[in-house]
Write a structure and sequence with these properties.
It is built from 5 helices and 33 strands. The chain is mainly beta. The protein is globular, with a radius of gyration of 23 Å. The chain folds into 3 domains: 12-150, Cupredoxins -  blue copper proteins (Immunoglobulin-like); 164-347, Sandwich (Immunoglobulin-like); 368-567, Cupredoxins -  blue copper proteins (Immunoglobulin-like, Sandwich). It has helices at residues 11-20, 178-188, 339-347, 412-417, 546-550, and strands spanning 32-46, 49-56, 65-68, 72-79, 87-90, 116-122, 128-134, 144-150, 164-173, 197-200, 217-220, 225-232, 238-243, 248-253, 256-263, 266-268, 273-279, 288-296, 309-315, 328-329, 368-380, 394-400, 403-405, 451-453, 456-459, 463-471, 480-484, 489-496, 514-516, 518-521, 525-533, 537-543, 554-559. Helices cover 7% and strands 37% of the residues. Strand 14 and strand 15 form a beta hairpin. Strands 10-9-12-17-14-15 form a 6-stranded mixed sheet, with no helix packed on it. Strands 11, 13, 16, 18, 19 and 20 form a 6-stranded mixed sheet that branches. The chain binds CU-O-CU linkage. CU-O-CU linkage is lined by residues 88, 90, 103, 133, 135, 271, 483, 485, 540, 542, 544. The site of CU-O-CU linkage has 11 residues, from strand 5 and strand 32.
Protein backbone atom coordinates (compact mmCIF):
# COMPACT_ATOMS: atom_id res chain seq x y z
CA UNK A 1 0.00 0.00 0.00
CA UNK A 2 1.61 3.23 -1.05
CA UNK A 3 0.64 6.62 0.24
CA UNK A 4 -2.04 8.60 -1.47
CA UNK A 5 -2.69 12.28 -1.42
CA UNK A 6 -5.99 13.81 -0.51
CA UNK A 7 -6.92 17.46 -0.69
CA UNK A 8 -6.65 18.53 2.95
CA UNK A 9 -9.67 20.78 2.56
CA UNK A 10 -11.97 17.82 1.90
CA UNK A 11 -12.09 15.80 5.11
CA UNK A 12 -15.29 14.02 4.09
CA UNK A 13 -13.31 12.37 1.31
CA UNK A 14 -10.96 10.84 3.87
CA UNK A 15 -13.93 9.38 5.68
CA UNK A 16 -15.35 7.81 2.58
CA UNK A 17 -11.91 6.43 1.64
CA UNK A 18 -11.47 4.74 4.98
CA UNK A 19 -14.89 3.21 4.64
CA UNK A 20 -13.96 1.73 1.30
CA UNK A 21 -10.45 0.56 2.06
CA UNK A 22 -9.23 -1.18 5.17
CA UNK A 23 -6.24 0.95 6.08
CA UNK A 24 -3.83 -0.26 8.77
CA UNK A 25 -3.79 2.38 11.49
CA UNK A 26 -0.12 3.18 10.84
CA UNK A 27 -0.98 4.68 7.47
CA UNK A 28 -3.23 7.31 9.02
CA UNK A 29 -1.75 10.53 7.71
CA UNK A 30 -1.33 12.31 10.99
CA UNK A 31 -0.48 10.86 14.37
CA UNK A 32 -0.05 12.80 17.55
CA UNK A 33 3.11 11.91 19.49
CA UNK A 34 3.45 13.10 23.07
CA UNK A 35 6.76 13.53 24.87
CA UNK A 36 7.65 14.76 28.36
CA UNK A 37 10.94 16.57 28.74
CA UNK A 38 12.10 17.29 32.27
CA UNK A 39 15.07 19.63 32.23
CA UNK A 40 17.15 18.71 35.27
CA UNK A 41 20.65 18.69 36.76
CA UNK A 42 22.44 15.35 36.38
CA UNK A 43 25.88 14.16 37.49
CA UNK A 44 27.99 12.84 34.64
CA UNK A 45 31.57 11.53 34.87
CA UNK A 46 33.98 12.33 32.02
CA UNK A 47 37.74 13.06 31.83
CA UNK A 48 38.50 11.79 35.35
CA UNK A 49 35.92 13.91 37.15
CA UNK A 50 32.23 14.22 37.74
CA UNK A 51 30.24 17.34 37.05
CA UNK A 52 26.66 18.36 37.26
CA UNK A 53 25.23 19.19 33.83
CA UNK A 54 21.85 20.22 32.51
CA UNK A 55 20.09 17.28 30.82
CA UNK A 56 16.66 16.27 29.63
CA UNK A 57 15.22 13.39 31.68
CA UNK A 58 18.68 12.70 33.14
CA UNK A 59 19.96 11.48 29.76
CA UNK A 60 23.14 12.60 28.03
CA UNK A 61 22.81 12.95 25.10
CA UNK A 62 19.12 13.61 25.51
CA UNK A 63 16.24 11.38 24.40
CA UNK A 64 16.19 10.30 20.78
CA UNK A 65 12.84 11.15 19.18
CA UNK A 66 11.89 8.81 16.36
CA UNK A 67 8.82 10.10 14.59
CA UNK A 68 7.31 10.06 11.14
CA UNK A 69 6.62 12.60 8.44
CA UNK A 70 3.22 14.30 9.03
CA UNK A 71 3.24 13.52 12.78
CA UNK A 72 2.19 16.20 15.21
CA UNK A 73 4.64 16.50 18.11
CA UNK A 74 3.53 17.70 21.51
CA UNK A 75 6.53 18.10 23.79
CA UNK A 76 5.84 19.21 27.35
CA UNK A 77 8.98 20.83 28.72
CA UNK A 78 9.32 21.49 32.44
CA UNK A 79 12.27 23.45 33.77
CA UNK A 80 13.75 22.09 37.02
CA UNK A 81 17.14 23.82 36.73
CA UNK A 82 18.35 27.19 38.02
CA UNK A 83 18.73 28.51 34.44
CA UNK A 84 16.22 29.84 31.96
CA UNK A 85 15.70 27.33 29.13
CA UNK A 86 14.23 27.08 25.64
CA UNK A 87 14.37 24.21 23.14
CA UNK A 88 14.74 24.43 19.37
CA UNK A 89 13.83 21.74 16.82
CA UNK A 90 16.73 22.31 14.49
CA UNK A 91 15.83 22.13 10.80
CA UNK A 92 12.10 21.72 11.38
CA UNK A 93 10.31 24.22 9.18
CA UNK A 94 7.62 25.17 11.73
CA UNK A 95 5.14 26.11 9.01
CA UNK A 96 2.84 28.62 10.71
CA UNK A 97 4.01 27.31 14.09
CA UNK A 98 6.74 29.82 14.81
CA UNK A 99 5.69 29.91 18.48
CA UNK A 100 7.28 26.46 18.80
CA UNK A 101 10.61 27.33 17.14
CA UNK A 102 12.43 28.11 20.36
CA UNK A 103 15.28 30.65 20.09
CA UNK A 104 15.22 32.67 23.30
CA UNK A 105 13.91 36.25 22.93
CA UNK A 106 13.22 35.63 19.25
CA UNK A 107 10.12 33.41 19.14
CA UNK A 108 9.56 33.10 22.88
CA UNK A 109 10.61 34.28 26.29
CA UNK A 110 12.52 31.56 28.16
CA UNK A 111 10.86 28.92 30.32
CA UNK A 112 11.79 30.02 33.82
CA UNK A 113 12.67 27.72 36.70
CA UNK A 114 9.60 25.77 37.80
CA UNK A 115 7.65 26.64 34.63
CA UNK A 116 6.33 24.49 31.79
CA UNK A 117 5.82 25.16 28.08
CA UNK A 118 4.34 22.81 25.50
CA UNK A 119 5.99 22.82 22.07
CA UNK A 120 3.28 21.84 19.59
CA UNK A 121 4.13 21.48 15.91
CA UNK A 122 3.55 19.28 12.88
CA UNK A 123 6.24 17.83 10.61
CA UNK A 124 5.22 18.86 7.12
CA UNK A 125 7.04 17.62 4.02
CA UNK A 126 10.22 16.70 5.86
CA UNK A 127 11.97 13.43 6.58
CA UNK A 128 15.56 12.69 7.54
CA UNK A 129 17.95 13.37 10.39
CA UNK A 130 17.43 16.41 12.59
CA UNK A 131 18.18 17.28 16.20
CA UNK A 132 16.78 19.31 19.03
CA UNK A 133 18.85 21.50 21.31
CA UNK A 134 18.64 24.22 23.93
CA UNK A 135 18.59 27.67 22.33
CA UNK A 136 19.71 29.98 25.11
CA UNK A 137 23.22 30.91 26.20
CA UNK A 138 25.48 27.82 25.85
CA UNK A 139 23.14 25.27 27.40
CA UNK A 140 23.00 23.34 24.13
CA UNK A 141 26.49 22.04 25.03
CA UNK A 142 24.74 19.31 27.05
CA UNK A 143 21.07 19.72 26.13
CA UNK A 144 20.62 18.05 22.75
CA UNK A 145 19.41 14.85 21.14
CA UNK A 146 18.55 13.31 17.75
CA UNK A 147 15.19 13.97 16.09
CA UNK A 148 14.64 11.36 13.42
CA UNK A 149 11.80 11.69 10.95
CA UNK A 150 11.05 8.47 9.09
CA UNK A 151 9.37 8.69 5.70
CA UNK A 152 5.64 8.06 5.56
CA UNK A 153 4.71 4.39 5.74
CA UNK A 154 5.10 2.83 2.31
CA UNK A 155 7.40 5.53 0.97
CA UNK A 156 10.85 4.01 0.44
CA UNK A 157 14.20 5.76 0.59
CA UNK A 158 15.57 6.60 -2.87
CA UNK A 159 18.34 4.04 -2.18
CA UNK A 160 18.30 0.41 -1.01
CA UNK A 161 16.84 -0.02 2.47
CA UNK A 162 19.72 -0.15 4.98
CA UNK A 163 20.03 -3.17 7.26
CA UNK A 164 20.23 -0.89 10.32
CA UNK A 165 20.19 2.81 11.11
CA UNK A 166 22.53 4.29 13.69
CA UNK A 167 22.42 7.86 15.01
CA UNK A 168 25.87 9.35 15.59
CA UNK A 169 25.70 12.68 17.35
CA UNK A 170 28.95 14.60 17.75
CA UNK A 171 29.33 16.91 20.74
CA UNK A 172 31.86 18.98 22.63
CA UNK A 173 32.83 18.66 26.30
CA UNK A 174 34.27 21.15 28.79
CA UNK A 175 35.68 20.16 32.19
CA UNK A 176 34.57 23.56 33.43
CA UNK A 177 30.99 24.65 33.96
CA UNK A 178 29.71 25.68 30.54
CA UNK A 179 27.79 28.76 31.66
CA UNK A 180 30.90 30.00 33.50
CA UNK A 181 32.93 29.64 30.29
CA UNK A 182 30.67 31.86 28.21
CA UNK A 183 29.84 34.40 30.91
CA UNK A 184 33.55 34.91 31.62
CA UNK A 185 34.21 35.46 27.91
CA UNK A 186 31.40 37.97 27.58
CA UNK A 187 32.59 39.85 30.66
CA UNK A 188 36.21 40.10 29.61
CA UNK A 189 35.59 40.52 25.90
CA UNK A 190 38.09 37.75 25.20
CA UNK A 191 37.71 34.45 23.38
CA UNK A 192 35.92 31.73 25.38
CA UNK A 193 38.09 28.88 26.69
CA UNK A 194 38.25 26.05 24.19
CA UNK A 195 36.69 22.68 25.00
CA UNK A 196 38.61 19.72 26.43
CA UNK A 197 37.18 16.96 24.28
CA UNK A 198 34.70 15.94 21.63
CA UNK A 199 32.10 13.23 22.07
CA UNK A 200 30.40 10.59 19.93
CA UNK A 201 26.94 9.86 21.33
CA UNK A 202 28.14 11.49 24.56
CA UNK A 203 31.22 9.24 24.84
CA UNK A 204 34.84 10.31 24.53
CA UNK A 205 36.53 7.16 23.28
CA UNK A 206 39.98 5.67 23.81
CA UNK A 207 42.11 8.73 22.98
CA UNK A 208 41.26 10.73 26.14
CA UNK A 209 42.15 10.29 29.82
CA UNK A 210 39.87 8.11 31.95
CA UNK A 211 37.65 7.33 29.02
CA UNK A 212 38.47 3.74 28.15
CA UNK A 213 35.10 2.72 29.61
CA UNK A 214 33.31 5.41 27.62
CA UNK A 215 33.63 4.20 24.06
CA UNK A 216 30.93 4.26 21.44
CA UNK A 217 31.04 0.85 19.78
CA UNK A 218 29.20 0.08 16.60
CA UNK A 219 28.91 -3.71 16.23
CA UNK A 220 28.34 -4.72 12.65
CA UNK A 221 27.92 -7.82 10.56
CA UNK A 222 29.74 -8.42 7.30
CA UNK A 223 28.05 -7.74 3.92
CA UNK A 224 25.47 -5.32 5.22
CA UNK A 225 24.63 -1.67 4.68
CA UNK A 226 24.31 0.54 7.74
CA UNK A 227 22.95 4.06 7.59
CA UNK A 228 24.80 6.44 9.90
CA UNK A 229 22.66 9.41 10.84
CA UNK A 230 25.47 11.86 11.56
CA UNK A 231 24.71 15.05 13.50
CA UNK A 232 27.17 17.79 14.42
CA UNK A 233 25.91 19.10 17.76
CA UNK A 234 29.37 20.42 18.73
CA UNK A 235 29.32 23.91 20.18
CA UNK A 236 32.09 25.63 18.25
CA UNK A 237 33.81 23.36 15.76
CA UNK A 238 33.31 22.08 12.26
CA UNK A 239 34.47 18.47 12.23
CA UNK A 240 36.03 15.99 9.86
CA UNK A 241 34.64 12.47 10.29
CA UNK A 242 35.98 9.21 8.92
CA UNK A 243 35.84 5.46 9.53
CA UNK A 244 39.11 3.59 8.95
CA UNK A 245 39.14 1.44 5.80
CA UNK A 246 35.47 2.05 4.98
CA UNK A 247 33.94 4.26 2.33
CA UNK A 248 30.83 6.25 3.13
CA UNK A 249 28.12 7.16 0.64
CA UNK A 250 26.49 10.51 1.30
CA UNK A 251 22.76 10.22 0.56
CA UNK A 252 21.23 13.12 2.47
CA UNK A 253 22.22 16.39 4.13
CA UNK A 254 20.10 18.39 6.60
CA UNK A 255 17.12 16.11 5.93
CA UNK A 256 17.13 16.44 2.14
CA UNK A 257 18.20 13.70 -0.27
CA UNK A 258 21.26 14.40 -2.41
CA UNK A 259 22.73 12.71 -5.48
CA UNK A 260 24.70 9.96 -3.74
CA UNK A 261 28.47 10.21 -3.79
CA UNK A 262 31.26 8.28 -2.10
CA UNK A 263 33.62 9.87 0.36
CA UNK A 264 36.14 8.45 2.77
CA UNK A 265 36.10 11.67 4.82
CA UNK A 266 33.09 13.83 5.67
CA UNK A 267 33.15 17.48 6.72
CA UNK A 268 30.22 18.51 8.88
CA UNK A 269 29.58 21.92 10.43
CA UNK A 270 27.76 22.60 13.70
CA UNK A 271 24.06 22.50 12.85
CA UNK A 272 24.48 20.15 9.90
CA UNK A 273 23.35 16.54 9.63
CA UNK A 274 24.05 13.88 7.01
CA UNK A 275 22.90 10.37 6.28
CA UNK A 276 25.77 8.12 5.25
CA UNK A 277 25.65 4.57 3.97
CA UNK A 278 28.43 2.35 5.27
CA UNK A 279 28.86 -0.96 3.50
CA UNK A 280 30.64 -3.53 5.65
CA UNK A 281 33.33 -5.85 4.37
CA UNK A 282 32.52 -9.04 2.51
CA UNK A 283 34.10 -11.22 5.15
CA UNK A 284 35.01 -10.80 8.80
CA UNK A 285 38.26 -8.82 8.94
CA UNK A 286 41.07 -9.43 11.37
CA UNK A 287 40.88 -5.92 12.70
CA UNK A 288 38.65 -3.38 14.38
CA UNK A 289 38.26 0.12 12.97
CA UNK A 290 38.27 3.53 14.60
CA UNK A 291 35.78 6.17 13.56
CA UNK A 292 37.22 9.57 14.35
CA UNK A 293 36.24 13.21 14.37
CA UNK A 294 38.42 16.25 14.82
CA UNK A 295 38.16 19.91 13.83
CA UNK A 296 38.54 21.79 10.61
CA UNK A 297 39.73 25.24 11.64
CA UNK A 298 41.64 28.06 10.01
CA UNK A 299 42.22 29.69 13.41
CA UNK A 300 45.61 29.93 15.09
CA UNK A 301 46.65 26.95 17.25
CA UNK A 302 45.19 27.45 20.70
CA UNK A 303 42.01 29.05 19.41
CA UNK A 304 40.35 25.66 18.96
CA UNK A 305 40.33 22.29 20.71
CA UNK A 306 42.67 20.16 18.56
CA UNK A 307 41.85 16.81 20.17
CA UNK A 308 40.35 13.78 18.42
CA UNK A 309 37.34 11.73 19.48
CA UNK A 310 37.11 8.09 18.46
CA UNK A 311 34.56 5.31 18.46
CA UNK A 312 35.06 1.73 17.36
CA UNK A 313 33.53 -0.22 14.50
CA UNK A 314 33.66 -3.89 15.47
CA UNK A 315 32.62 -6.88 13.39
CA UNK A 316 30.59 -9.39 15.34
CA UNK A 317 32.55 -12.54 14.99
CA UNK A 318 30.55 -15.72 15.02
CA UNK A 319 33.24 -17.37 17.07
CA UNK A 320 33.20 -14.53 19.61
CA UNK A 321 36.97 -14.23 19.52
CA UNK A 322 38.38 -11.65 21.87
CA UNK A 323 38.27 -8.24 20.19
CA UNK A 324 41.11 -7.08 22.38
CA UNK A 325 43.48 -9.15 20.33
CA UNK A 326 42.48 -7.48 17.08
CA UNK A 327 44.63 -4.68 15.72
CA UNK A 328 42.89 -1.32 15.65
CA UNK A 329 43.06 0.63 12.40
CA UNK A 330 42.83 4.43 12.43
CA UNK A 331 41.61 6.70 9.63
CA UNK A 332 43.73 9.51 8.20
CA UNK A 333 42.10 12.90 8.58
CA UNK A 334 43.03 16.08 6.68
CA UNK A 335 45.13 18.87 8.19
CA UNK A 336 43.19 21.13 10.57
CA UNK A 337 43.22 24.01 8.07
CA UNK A 338 42.53 22.05 4.88
CA UNK A 339 40.29 24.64 3.21
CA UNK A 340 40.64 23.03 -0.21
CA UNK A 341 39.15 19.82 1.23
CA UNK A 342 36.24 21.92 2.49
CA UNK A 343 35.73 23.48 -0.95
CA UNK A 344 35.91 20.13 -2.77
CA UNK A 345 33.51 18.46 -0.38
CA UNK A 346 30.94 21.28 -0.58
CA UNK A 347 31.25 21.21 -4.37
CA UNK A 348 30.06 17.58 -4.50
CA UNK A 349 26.67 18.28 -2.96
CA UNK A 350 23.72 18.31 -5.37
CA UNK A 351 20.02 17.90 -4.75
CA UNK A 352 18.63 14.53 -5.78
CA UNK A 353 16.14 16.48 -7.95
CA UNK A 354 13.94 13.61 -9.13
CA UNK A 355 10.25 13.66 -9.88
CA UNK A 356 9.44 12.25 -6.49
CA UNK A 357 11.94 14.50 -4.70
CA UNK A 358 12.14 17.63 -6.84
CA UNK A 359 14.39 20.59 -6.14
CA UNK A 360 11.90 23.44 -5.81
CA UNK A 361 14.46 26.17 -6.43
CA UNK A 362 13.01 29.68 -6.62
CA UNK A 363 13.92 30.32 -10.26
CA UNK A 364 13.85 33.46 -12.35
CA UNK A 365 14.74 36.84 -10.93
CA UNK A 366 14.53 37.10 -7.16
CA UNK A 367 12.14 39.70 -5.70
CA UNK A 368 14.74 40.85 -3.21
CA UNK A 369 18.54 40.64 -3.26
CA UNK A 370 20.72 40.93 -0.19
CA UNK A 371 24.48 41.02 0.26
CA UNK A 372 25.58 40.23 3.80
CA UNK A 373 29.11 40.35 5.14
CA UNK A 374 29.71 37.73 7.81
CA UNK A 375 32.61 37.92 10.23
CA UNK A 376 34.37 38.92 13.40
CA UNK A 377 35.11 42.45 14.64
CA UNK A 378 35.14 44.45 17.82
CA UNK A 379 32.93 46.54 20.06
CA UNK A 380 34.32 49.09 22.50
CA UNK A 381 35.21 47.95 26.01
CA UNK A 382 32.84 49.41 28.63
CA UNK A 383 34.11 52.65 30.18
CA UNK A 384 36.61 52.32 33.04
CA UNK A 385 37.35 48.66 32.40
CA UNK A 386 40.11 46.74 30.68
CA UNK A 387 39.13 44.14 28.12
CA UNK A 388 40.80 41.09 26.64
CA UNK A 389 39.75 41.68 23.04
CA UNK A 390 42.33 42.21 20.30
CA UNK A 391 43.29 45.38 22.22
CA UNK A 392 42.75 46.45 25.85
CA UNK A 393 39.96 48.81 24.91
CA UNK A 394 38.00 46.43 22.66
CA UNK A 395 35.93 43.27 23.04
CA UNK A 396 35.55 40.55 20.45
CA UNK A 397 32.23 40.74 18.65
CA UNK A 398 30.76 39.44 15.39
CA UNK A 399 28.22 40.73 12.94
CA UNK A 400 26.27 40.56 9.71
CA UNK A 401 26.69 43.73 7.62
CA UNK A 402 28.46 45.28 10.60
CA UNK A 403 25.38 44.94 12.81
CA UNK A 404 26.19 42.95 15.92
CA UNK A 405 22.78 41.69 17.04
CA UNK A 406 21.55 42.87 20.41
CA UNK A 407 19.23 40.39 22.07
CA UNK A 408 16.09 42.21 23.22
CA UNK A 409 14.55 41.82 26.69
CA UNK A 410 11.29 40.53 25.24
CA UNK A 411 10.52 38.11 22.41
CA UNK A 412 10.52 39.56 18.88
CA UNK A 413 7.67 37.37 17.64
CA UNK A 414 5.32 38.55 20.40
CA UNK A 415 6.31 42.16 19.83
CA UNK A 416 5.56 41.70 16.12
CA UNK A 417 2.29 39.80 16.60
CA UNK A 418 0.87 42.32 19.09
CA UNK A 419 2.16 45.34 17.17
CA UNK A 420 4.50 46.41 19.97
CA UNK A 421 7.78 46.72 18.14
CA UNK A 422 8.56 50.18 19.51
CA UNK A 423 11.69 50.06 21.62
CA UNK A 424 12.14 46.35 20.82
CA UNK A 425 13.30 46.26 17.19
CA UNK A 426 13.50 48.26 13.98
CA UNK A 427 12.94 47.02 10.43
CA UNK A 428 15.95 48.63 8.81
CA UNK A 429 18.45 45.80 8.58
CA UNK A 430 20.91 46.89 5.86
CA UNK A 431 20.43 44.92 2.63
CA UNK A 432 24.01 45.77 1.60
CA UNK A 433 27.11 46.80 3.55
CA UNK A 434 26.78 50.46 4.51
CA UNK A 435 30.52 50.95 3.97
CA UNK A 436 31.80 48.46 1.37
CA UNK A 437 35.48 47.44 1.53
CA UNK A 438 37.79 44.73 0.21
CA UNK A 439 36.29 41.92 2.29
CA UNK A 440 38.96 39.30 1.70
CA UNK A 441 41.96 41.45 0.76
CA UNK A 442 45.11 41.84 2.84
CA UNK A 443 43.87 41.67 6.43
CA UNK A 444 42.48 45.16 7.00
CA UNK A 445 43.48 47.01 10.11
CA UNK A 446 40.48 49.28 9.87
CA UNK A 447 36.84 48.14 9.63
CA UNK A 448 37.11 45.97 12.74
CA UNK A 449 34.80 48.30 14.69
CA UNK A 450 31.21 47.09 14.49
CA UNK A 451 27.87 48.71 15.14
CA UNK A 452 25.09 47.00 17.06
CA UNK A 453 21.32 46.89 17.24
CA UNK A 454 18.16 44.79 17.01
CA UNK A 455 17.45 45.40 13.34
CA UNK A 456 15.20 43.07 11.34
CA UNK A 457 14.76 42.61 7.58
CA UNK A 458 11.06 42.64 6.67
CA UNK A 459 9.79 40.47 3.79
CA UNK A 460 6.30 40.40 2.32
CA UNK A 461 4.76 36.91 2.28
CA UNK A 462 6.07 34.73 -0.60
CA UNK A 463 9.07 36.94 -1.41
CA UNK A 464 11.67 35.16 -3.51
CA UNK A 465 14.87 35.98 -1.63
CA UNK A 466 18.49 35.76 -2.77
CA UNK A 467 21.27 36.33 -0.25
CA UNK A 468 25.00 36.41 -0.93
CA UNK A 469 26.87 35.66 2.29
CA UNK A 470 30.37 37.09 2.08
CA UNK A 471 33.01 36.00 4.60
CA UNK A 472 35.48 38.65 5.75
CA UNK A 473 39.03 38.26 6.98
CA UNK A 474 38.87 40.95 9.65
CA UNK A 475 40.68 39.46 12.68
CA UNK A 476 41.18 36.25 10.71
CA UNK A 477 39.34 34.46 7.91
CA UNK A 478 37.10 31.74 9.31
CA UNK A 479 34.38 29.49 7.96
CA UNK A 480 30.95 30.40 9.37
CA UNK A 481 28.14 27.80 9.27
CA UNK A 482 25.08 30.00 8.76
CA UNK A 483 21.79 28.47 9.90
CA UNK A 484 18.36 29.74 8.87
CA UNK A 485 15.29 29.06 11.01
CA UNK A 486 11.88 28.48 9.43
CA UNK A 487 13.10 27.58 5.92
CA UNK A 488 15.35 25.41 3.86
CA UNK A 489 17.39 27.27 1.29
CA UNK A 490 19.19 26.30 -1.90
CA UNK A 491 22.93 26.90 -2.18
CA UNK A 492 23.06 28.20 -5.75
CA UNK A 493 26.68 29.37 -5.80
CA UNK A 494 29.91 29.49 -3.87
CA UNK A 495 33.44 30.72 -4.39
CA UNK A 496 36.60 32.02 -2.80
CA UNK A 497 37.57 35.67 -2.45
CA UNK A 498 35.09 38.48 -3.02
CA UNK A 499 31.77 37.81 -4.73
CA UNK A 500 31.72 39.38 -8.19
CA UNK A 501 28.16 40.56 -8.91
CA UNK A 502 28.97 41.06 -12.61
CA UNK A 503 30.26 37.57 -13.36
CA UNK A 504 29.51 35.09 -10.58
CA UNK A 505 25.72 34.87 -11.07
CA UNK A 506 26.33 33.36 -14.54
CA UNK A 507 27.55 30.19 -12.80
CA UNK A 508 24.65 29.89 -10.35
CA UNK A 509 23.08 26.43 -10.28
CA UNK A 510 19.29 26.75 -10.42
CA UNK A 511 18.76 23.15 -11.55
CA UNK A 512 19.92 20.86 -8.73
CA UNK A 513 21.58 22.98 -6.03
CA UNK A 514 21.81 21.37 -2.61
CA UNK A 515 18.91 22.23 -0.31
CA UNK A 516 19.68 22.58 3.38
CA UNK A 517 19.28 24.66 6.53
CA UNK A 518 22.93 25.29 7.46
CA UNK A 519 25.70 26.23 5.02
CA UNK A 520 29.34 26.97 5.71
CA UNK A 521 30.33 30.36 4.33
CA UNK A 522 33.89 29.50 3.22
CA UNK A 523 36.83 31.12 5.01
CA UNK A 524 37.55 34.24 2.90
CA UNK A 525 34.87 33.20 0.41
CA UNK A 526 31.16 33.49 -0.29
CA UNK A 527 27.99 31.47 -0.87
CA UNK A 528 24.74 32.49 -2.55
CA UNK A 529 21.44 31.08 -1.30
CA UNK A 530 17.80 31.37 -2.29
CA UNK A 531 14.62 30.73 -0.36
CA UNK A 532 10.94 31.49 -0.67
CA UNK A 533 9.60 33.47 2.30
CA UNK A 534 6.40 31.40 2.59
CA UNK A 535 6.33 31.05 6.37
CA UNK A 536 5.04 34.04 8.34
CA UNK A 537 6.90 34.87 11.54
CA UNK A 538 10.24 36.05 12.88
CA UNK A 539 13.10 33.80 11.86
CA UNK A 540 16.62 33.90 13.15
CA UNK A 541 19.61 33.45 10.83
CA UNK A 542 22.92 32.95 12.60
CA UNK A 543 26.32 31.39 12.72
CA UNK A 544 25.96 28.00 14.43
CA UNK A 545 29.36 28.42 16.08
CA UNK A 546 28.15 29.31 19.55
CA UNK A 547 31.07 31.66 20.29
CA UNK A 548 30.15 33.73 17.22
CA UNK A 549 26.45 33.57 18.02
CA UNK A 550 27.16 34.95 21.50
CA UNK A 551 29.21 37.74 19.90
CA UNK A 552 26.21 38.79 17.81
CA UNK A 553 26.64 36.97 14.48
CA UNK A 554 22.89 36.78 13.86
CA UNK A 555 19.99 38.68 12.38
CA UNK A 556 16.28 38.02 11.98
CA UNK A 557 13.84 38.07 9.08
CA UNK A 558 10.33 39.29 9.68
CA UNK A 559 8.07 37.51 7.21
CA UNK A 560 4.71 39.22 7.05
CA UNK A 561 1.36 37.46 6.88
CA UNK A 562 -0.13 36.80 3.47
CA UNK A 563 -3.70 37.71 2.62
CA UNK A 564 -5.28 34.24 2.85
CA UNK A 565 -6.15 32.66 6.22
CA UNK A 566 -3.64 29.84 5.61
CA UNK A 567 -0.92 32.44 5.12
CA UNK A 568 -1.20 33.99 8.55
CA UNK A 569 0.58 33.26 11.80
CA UNK A 570 -1.99 31.88 14.29
CA UNK A 571 -2.22 33.47 17.75
CA UNK A 572 0.26 32.33 20.40
CA UNK A 573 -0.56 29.36 22.66
CA UNK A 574 -1.93 30.38 26.06
CA UNK A 575 1.07 28.93 27.94
CA UNK A 576 3.66 30.92 25.97
CA UNK A 577 6.22 31.99 28.62
CA UNK A 578 6.39 35.60 29.74
CA UNK A 579 9.65 37.50 30.11
CU1 LIG B 1 20.50 24.82 15.82
CU2 LIG B 1 19.29 28.70 15.92
O1 LIG B 1 19.93 26.75 15.91
Amino acid sequence: MTSFLLPPSLPFLIISYSMLIVVPSTTVAKQIKHFEFNVQMTNVARLCSTKSIVTVNGQFPGPELIVRESDQLIVKVTNHVPYNITLHWHGIRQLRSGWADGPAYVTQCPIQTGQTYVYNFTLIGQRGTFFWHAHISWLRATVYGPLIILPKIGVPYPFPEPYKEVPIILGEWWKADIEAVISQALQTGGGPNVSDAYTINGLLGPLYDCSTQDIFKLKVEARKTYMLRLINAAVNEELFFSVADHNLTVVDVDGVYVKPFDADIILISPGQTSNLLLRTKRSYPNAAFLMEARPYSTGLPGTYDNTTVAGVLEYESRTAASHKALPLRAPTLPAFNDTSFAANFAGKLRSLATRRFPARVPRGDPDRRFFFTVGIGTLPCPANSTCQGPTNDTMFAAAINNVSFVTPATALLQAHYFGRSRGVYTQDFPAFPEAPFDYTGAPPTTNAALGSGTRLAALPFNTKVEVVLQGTNILGAESHPLHLHGFNFFVIGRGSGNFDPANDPASFNLVDPVERNTVAVPAAGWVAIRFLADNPGVWLMHCHIEAHLSWGLKMAWLVQDGTLPKQKLPPPPSDLPKC
